[in-house]
Amino acid sequence: MQLLKPTPYNRIENQDYSELTIKILKQVFTSVIFTDGQMTFSFSNCKFKKLIIENNEDIEFENISISFLNCYIEELEVKNIQSKNISISFYSTLLSGIIENDNIKSVHCNNCLILDNLFLIKIKSVHISYTEENIFPIRWRRLFKSLRVDYKYILKRKQTYRIYDCSNLHFSSNENRLEKRGVYRRNHENLHEYKIGYFLTDDQKALFDINLHIKYSPEIDHKETKIINTKLNSLSLAGHVKGHLSIESTKVNNWYIRDFTTEFGASFYNILPSNITDSKIEIHKANLDKSWFDNIAFSSYKIVSFYRTKFGKTTFTSCDFPTNSTSFESFKALENIHYPDKKPDKYYKDQYEIFLQLKVQLEGTGNFYESQKLQAISNDALMKIEDISCWDKFILHTNSLSNNHGLSIARPLKWFALFSFVLYILYLISVRRILLNTDFDPTLIGYYFSFIDLTHRNDFLVGKEDFSAWTLSIDYINKVLTGYFIYQFISAFRKYGKK
Fold first, then answer.
1. Run of H or E residues at 410
2. CA 145 from chain center: how many Å?
3. Which residues of 460-480 are buried (b: 16+ CB within 10 A; e: fewer)?
4. If you ran DSSP here, which 8-state letter would residue 455 be given?
5. 266 and 292 Cβ atoms separated by less than 8 Å
6. Which of 119, 250, 251, 489 sits at 20 to 30 Å (Cα–Cα) from 278?
7. Where are the extended beta strands (E) located within 200-243?
């Protein structure tokens, strides 16, 4: 393996290395004066088959920065670092590998493309950004040409950041909001490559497959994790986080929260999928006490799974939930969301308990509109539990049909109109007032309103001597059903007055 001992402020450009070890030595800093704003070691337009960065001694220098600009690093390894003032930055670089050492001051990635996986472990500060105003096509074209690949081949590859136990993490993007796409001229007085900029087309943006996996260990003092204004194919959160966690204005197709707890709570704001047909949320064995879900588009995800999760004092505000029991079928209680057809033994009971927890959290914020929907859906789940008695299932089923568990005023009105009309026709047949060779009596229309009056006399239309065997039975059934549907109507009408 080739060994390189770079000297400070000496730029290395246009080099190809097979296997290279960069060794940061104390002796090269003798009589070197720190220059603020300038990279200590910089590599530009270089290619590395395998790159190892080592530092075996503590170096007294204000800041040691290592930068890679428009480079290709197929396999990166940074583990042996002794000095605590070393920062590593990657700009418009293709790379994969591992950086693991709690002495490293910071790692910065801007507009980088990951070749499969990049592991960042126990770093004090990690900053990852995608800024569309900093895309320079001349540099990217030169890099792709040297690799003999097409940009589509690179963009289509799954790019995964695996970040474990980093104290500070900031992941963001700055997307072009103008209608302009493609090449444009920039006002820049320095390098030629920076005079031409490039705005990605919508088709090119759709090719990106960026995945972010974050894991926290309880013994690590995490300070802050912030993900803002970005687009991810998948986001995974796991472990116990001690610092503040916030995810804002982000599009996430697949969102996994597994075996996750927070010490000070987490905030999630304005999250929705970019691909509705293939999107899911899994919250699995998580404790979301003190967390805040604000403006989350739950109804836009194809599958939302809550499994053995505690919400505690979780707050839900301005979240979009499904509108009816049919669309609520996307809310499941799966042990593994990747196998939606494999349901646990107590699937419906788990689903029932989760819906009740969500209902309580929504009531806590005064959102009775959404909480009553969840009460209705939890009752639908309760009907499917095997050990529920037949009578309880009957009650739940009739309430579901008659007024959707107290949510619909239209249903009892429709059922009331249907049954009362049919029974009135049967009543008239039983007293021989219709379907005979006689002219239609228009007064029978008015007597319909007497028929649906619960206090009407049995002989309101004909004398008792004209009753048939079915007359009293039909009249009694009508009074029972009329009273039931009136009660269901009033119950649904007063849904916002219930406590």
1. helix 410-430
2. 37
3. ebbeeeeeeeebeebbeebbe
4. T
5. yes
6. 119
7. 210-216, 224-228, 231-241
